[in-house]
């Protein structure tokens, strides 16, 4: 489980405080969406949760251990992240990229074994991109890369999965495919999932809970339909919208920017 305790963050000592006392916990098996306007600090928060950035104050723990204090290998066994952009400095094929997700499981002087290759194959199959395995990663489309990076994070088999805008390059079917796969695997393996999203409808459809960030803090935190409301969309996003209920599901109909 993730525990974020009164986290504060500034990018530069003299700069503005981007996160100003963010506090929440996520239980195993829970899928939480992080919603908030551009520049509100979603990526910054994800990087603090992954341990990549150390909060200016407060702390993040995973299963009781502070992530920022862990060596990279141990952190990779605790948290798997999919970042927003997927540049690779070398020319790897897709299978190699997914196999890299297993690095923390492989001994310092060993090569990936049969179990690692099997985990990589399974992850590619789960995300539905086995057919890409032999392609050069650099030649893939943005959406294909995103699917491969989700497979790599699943192959990593960490108890916490962080996804920063996992649907941003994806077509409609692949948006649904990635999020339904993440949900199913979270339930199956009891993963703790935090994902930033831009589309409140995807949050309503796939998240158990929504954290809405505004002004460096948590503006609202609760079950998706209680957080994705017309009032919060107006206050936090400056959008006039209606939230309708159709066949037991909620959907946002955005009318205009206020
Ligand atoms: N490396 C950096 N150095 C200085 N400021 C930064 C850096 N990265 C982000 N910021 C600033 O921190 C604030 C939060 O940025 P962040 O990327 O966390 O927002 P976000 O909510 O993920 O935005 P978006 O939805 O546009 O991706 C912004 O004002 C941004 O300009």
Automatic annotation (TrEMBL):
<feature type="domain" description="ABC transporter">
    <location>
        <begin position="2"/>
        <end position="240"/>
    </location>
</feature>
<comment type="similarity">
    <text>Belongs to the ABC transporter superfamily.</text>
</comment>
<dbReference type="InterPro" id="IPR017871">
    <property type="entry name" value="ABC_transporter-like_CS"/>
</dbReference>
<keyword id="KW-0547">Nucleotide-binding</keyword>
<dbReference type="GO" id="GO:0005524">
    <property type="term" value="F:ATP binding"/>
</dbReference>
<keyword id="KW-0067">ATP-binding</keyword>
<dbReference type="InterPro" id="IPR003439">
    <property type="entry name" value="ABC_transporter-like_ATP-bd"/>
</dbReference>
<dbReference type="InterPro" id="IPR027417">
    <property type="entry name" value="P-loop_NTPase"/>
</dbReference>
<dbReference type="Pfam" id="PF00005">
    <property type="entry name" value="ABC_tran"/>
</dbReference>
<dbReference type="InterPro" id="IPR003593">
    <property type="entry name" value="AAA+_ATPase"/>
</dbReference>
<keyword id="KW-0813">Transport</keyword>
<protein>
    <submittedName>
        <fullName>ABC transporter ATP-binding protein</fullName>
    </submittedName>
</protein>
<dbReference type="GO" id="GO:0016887">
    <property type="term" value="F:ATP hydrolysis activity"/>
</dbReference>
């Amino acid at each position: 489980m993730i525990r974020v305790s009164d986290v504060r963050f500034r990018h530069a000592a003299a700069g503005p405080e981007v996160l100003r006392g963010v506090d929440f916990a996520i239980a195993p098996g829970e899928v939480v969406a992080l919603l908030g306007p551009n520049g509100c600090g979603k990526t910054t928060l994800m990087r603090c949760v992954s341990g990549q950035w150390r909060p200016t104050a407060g702390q993040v723990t995973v299963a009781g251990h502070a992530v920022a204090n862990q060596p990279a290998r141990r952190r990779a066994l605790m948290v798997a992240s999919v970042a927003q952009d997927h540049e690779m400095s070398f020319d790897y094929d897709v299978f190699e990229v997914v196999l890299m997700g297993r690095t923390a499981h492989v001994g310092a002087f060993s090569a990936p074994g049969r179990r690692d290759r099997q985990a990589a194959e399974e992850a590619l199959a789960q995300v539905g991109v086995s057919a890409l395995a032999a392609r050069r990663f650099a030649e893939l489309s943005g959406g294909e890369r995103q699917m491969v990076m989700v497979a790599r994070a699943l192959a990593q088999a960490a108890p916490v999965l962080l996804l920063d805008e996992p649907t941003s390059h994806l077509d409609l079917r692949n948006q649904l495919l990635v999020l339904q796969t993440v949900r199913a695997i979270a339930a199956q393996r009891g993963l703790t999932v935090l994902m930033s999203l831009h589309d409140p409808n995807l949050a309503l459809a796939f998240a158990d809970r929504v954290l809405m960030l505004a002004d460096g803090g948590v503006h609202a935190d609760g079950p998706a339909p209680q957080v994705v409301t017309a009032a919060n969309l107006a206050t936090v996003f400056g959008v006039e919208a209606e939230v309708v209920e159709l066949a037991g599901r909620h959907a946002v109909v955005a009318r205009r920017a206020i």
